[in-house]
Amino acid sequence: MPRSRPAIDSELAAALEAMPIGPNGVFDLTDIPATREAVRALADSIAATLPDEPTVTADEIQVPRAEGPDVPVFLLRPQNAPGPLPVLVWFHGGGQVLGFAAQDAPWLKPLAAALGCAVAAVDYRLAPETPAPGAAEDGYTAYQWITHNAADLGLDPTRIGLAGQSGGGGIAAATALLIRDRGAATPPVPAAAVPDAR
Question: Which keywords fit this entry according to its UniProt record (predicted)?
Answer without folding.
Answer: Hydrolase
